[in-house]
């Protein structure tokens, strides 16, 4: 069969699934698919991403671009980045439960969610009664895939009935089969020592669901009429079964054959046979049987192969067999019906004419399923989805104007207890309750936001302050962080960062609250609690406490504890920088994480109130370094993506981007501008602010103008459309900072202070 020209506009695919030499049916299928594509379309580049259940065990061929360790979620994200960078125009997924990591294989969804290219998925199993996790993953895969390939029409029916799938996105392409000439079994038997035998064959990885017991129980009746009958069970024991019980199952089958008196008529071949050898075995058999026990089995590669070489097949009526053997292309026998198998085997071994006629009908059907046909049909679908160029997200046509602070979304997320953490879209999600992190930020916002009624400010300041106050655990001398919706605490001691943020909020409130009563309250609670800062260990918790201490010194000049916090941790940050520094790496840690700009901001604020020019110099140096790494090649702000966290001395990755990073950068740049008067820092603050308005990698605004809301971040696939407290507060505090920065001022020193949270 001559090679085909490539479809216009498609020349590069990524293919993911198991791959030989891994020993399983899916590995064989994916390998055969790859070979069919390359043989039919020699100019097509196909990058194989092999799922790896035992990293380091398999010696993959050059066709495999990358192996993905099954249980390493980070490896899926790395693979997604590699696929995006490769120039592949589409991803073809071979999906089977159990080969992808995470609950029901949801690590695969993490990979697809980070791709902008179209996806086509072949489903090797379609479940009638999926578990909750299986349903969740399947429906995510259905949403993400431009086409779904099933190998039986029953699969289409289940997807529509169980998952509500769109019929137009589903295409039925039968399992591929080898392209072999029709052969007389007797011409092949000598190779296997089967001369003169009437051979009945079953092939596949040996496991209890294959129904071998049914066939062994049928043999006494078969042998009574056919003394030369031989039942061959070809295939290694399934690796998972071997890992669990060794070869105990194979031993039980051998014992059953002895018990039935047919041991001389059963041959077990314990081997994982290569492709060409398997076809030889199939062609040497007189009959092929699949006595499988699972009615829902929607795909059987071995059954397809048997039909492909023209074998008369006797099978139980599982889904795939019912479809492929319809219209007199094979024989069906009820599940577990040993007598039925014996009867049909006897009939076909006796009636040579009927056996040959059935063989020819099967072979004719198999010609429609050969691998080149599968490759052609799949390429038609791939070319269509690539040509359609499905948009993963719609880009905004214009950047939003600078926004005024707006309390509406904050109030939507708040109740008489405090501000709830999370939302589903814009609706508060009470399941996750509250945390001090968000209520501390909300408390700071109440000191900074202009243009609201003072009674409203008083109400919410009191509520958020009450949350912070109640979070203090005097027995443990720590703030708690997480609270359930029923106001019960989830813990006795919150994280170091949450304790640092509480101190920060108290310092800012002591300085900036509009009402004296709130300034007095915050000053007292700061004095009662802030010494815990001296016991914190993490650099970010130090930075948060420093920001609170800097505000406290401005509220109460000479405040001794605040001076100690600022001096100790300012000097520690400089020491950390000296230890981690490299020529290309001017940062306090060997990794980037969240809220990065808070570290230089803390040094700047400490340097300002302590009159420490060394703190200021290091703050400006490190701020310049992190700002450079948060600027895209197009000159836009690009928040350090969460996928970057924990990667030593590595450039940041672009996703997922969170609103917190833009706000931290704005506040740090405002601090630098206030201290230096350098317009560069004003421009950098505006660059970071415009990220909220649509000047970002996806050209999508995160701010919702009508209600002051903010989406939770940018992902490769578009917006995270939830609007949690952290994101809303980040936007509103950024609005406050930019509003203050934009007000006319006689000189930089008189520029109003900006919110920090």
Poorly predicted runs: 390-397, 745-757
Overall strand count:
22
CATH class of the largest domain: Mainly Alpha
CATH fold naming of the largest domain: Glycosyltransferase
What do the pLDDT scores average to?
93
Q: By helix and strand content, what is the structural category?
A: alpha/beta
Biggest sheet, spatial arrangement of strands: 3-2-1-4-5-6-7
Helix content: 40-55%
For the record, give the distance between the C-alpha atoms at the N and C termini, rounded to a whole number. Answer: 67 Å
- Please tally the helical runs, counting DSSP H or I stretches of 4 or more residues: 26
**Radius of gyration from the alpha-carbon trace, in angstroms:** 34 Å
* Percentage of residues in DSSP E strands: 5-15%
User: How many domains make up the coordinates?
Assistant: 3
Largest sheet: 7 strands, parallel
* CATH-level-2 architecture of the largest domain: Alpha/alpha barrel
Shape: elongated
């Amino acid at each position: 069969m001559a090679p085909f020209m490539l479809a216009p506009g498609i020349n590069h695919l990524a293919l993911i699934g198991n791959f030989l030499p891994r020993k399983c049916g899916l590995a064989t299928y994916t390998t055969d698919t790859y070979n069919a594509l390359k043989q039919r379309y020699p100019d097509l580049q196909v990058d194989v991403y092999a799922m790896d259940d035992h990293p380091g065990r398999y010696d993959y061929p050059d066709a495999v671009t990358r192996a993905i360790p099954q249980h390493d979620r980070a490896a899926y994200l790395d693979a997604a980045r590699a696929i995006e960078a490769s120039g592949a125009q589409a991803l073809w997924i071979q999906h089977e439960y159990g080969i992808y990591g995470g609950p029901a294989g949801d690590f695969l969804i993490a990979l697809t969610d980070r791709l902008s290219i179209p996806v086509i998925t072949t489903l090797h199993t379609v479940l009638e009664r999926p578990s909750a996790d299986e349903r969740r993953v399947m429906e995510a895969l259905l949403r993400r895939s431009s086409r779904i390939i099933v190998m039986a029409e029953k699969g289409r029916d289940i997807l529509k009935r169980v998952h509500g799938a769109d019929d137009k996105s589903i295409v039925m392409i039968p399992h591929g089969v080898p392209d072999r000439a029709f052969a007389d079994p007797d011409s092949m038997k000598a190779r296997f020592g089967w001369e003169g035998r009437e051979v009945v064959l079953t092939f596949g990885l040996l496991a209890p669901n294959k129904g071998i017991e049914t066939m062994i129980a049928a043999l006494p009746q078969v042998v009574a009429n056919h003394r030369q009958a031989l039942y061959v069970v070809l295939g290694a024991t399934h690796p998972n079964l071997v890992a669990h019980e060794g070869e105990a199952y194979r031993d039980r089958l051998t014992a059953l054959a002895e018990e039935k008196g047919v041991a001389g008529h059963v041959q077990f071949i314990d081997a994982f046979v290569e492709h060409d050898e398997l076809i030889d075995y199939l062609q040497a058999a007189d009959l092929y049987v699949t006595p499988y026990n699972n009615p829902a089995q929607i795909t059987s590669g071995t059954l397809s192969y048997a039909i492909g070489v023209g074998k008369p097949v006797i099978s139980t009526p599982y889904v795939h067999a019912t479809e492929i053997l319809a219209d007199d292309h094979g024989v069906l026998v009820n599940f577990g019906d040993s007598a039925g198998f014996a009867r049909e085997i006897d009939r076909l071994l006796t009636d040579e004419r009927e056996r040959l006629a059935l063989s020819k009908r099967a072979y004719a059907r198999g010609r429609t399923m050969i691998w080149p046909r599968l490759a052609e049909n799949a390429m038609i679908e791939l070319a269509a989805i690539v040509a359609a160029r499905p948009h993963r997200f719609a880009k905004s046509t214009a950047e939003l104007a600078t926004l005024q602070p707006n309390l509406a979304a904050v109030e939507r997320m708040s109740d008489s207890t405090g501000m709830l953490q999370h939302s589903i879209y814009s609706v508060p999600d009470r399941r996750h309750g509250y945390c001090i992190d968000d209520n501390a930020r909300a408390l700071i916002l109440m000191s900074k936001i202009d243009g609201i009624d003072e009674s409203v400010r008083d109400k919410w300041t009191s509520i958020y302050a009450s949350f912070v106050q109640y979070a203090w655990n005097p027995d443990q001398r720590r703030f708690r962080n997480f609270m359930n919706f029923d106001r019960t605490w989830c813990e006795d001691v919150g994280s170091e960062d949450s304790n640092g943020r509480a101190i920060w909020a108290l310092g800012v409130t002591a300085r900036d609250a509009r009402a004296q009563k709130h300034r007095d309250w915050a000053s007292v609670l700061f004095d009662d609690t802030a010494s815990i800062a001296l016991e914190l260990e993490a650099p970010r918790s130090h930075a948060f406490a420093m920001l609170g201490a800097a505000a406290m010194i401005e509220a109460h000049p000479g405040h001794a504890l605040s001076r100690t916090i600022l001096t100790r941790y300012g000097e520690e940050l400089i020491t950390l920088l000296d230890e981690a520094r490299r020529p290309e790496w001017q940062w306090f840690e060997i990794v980037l994480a969240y809220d990065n700009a808070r570290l230089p901001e803390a040094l700047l604020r400490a340097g300002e109130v302590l009159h420490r020019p060394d703190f200021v110099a290091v703050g400006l140096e490190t701020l310049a370094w992190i700002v450079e790494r948060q600027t895209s090649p197009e000159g836009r702000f690009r928040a350090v993506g969460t996928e970057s966290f924990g990667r030593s001395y590595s450039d940041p990755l672009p996703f997922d981007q969170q609103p917190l990073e833009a706000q931290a950068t704005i506040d740090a740049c405002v601090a630098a501008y206030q201290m230096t008067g350098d317009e560069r820092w004003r421009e950098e603050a505006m660059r970071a602010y415009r990220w909220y308005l649509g000047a970002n990698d996806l050209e999508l605004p995160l701010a919702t103008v009508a209600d002051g809301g903010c989406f939770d971040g940018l992902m490769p696939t578009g917006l995270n459309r939830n609007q949690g407290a952290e994101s809303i507060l980040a936007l509103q505090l950024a609005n406050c900072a930019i509003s203050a920065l934009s007000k006319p001022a006689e000189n930089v020193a008189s520029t109003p202070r900006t919110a920090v949270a």
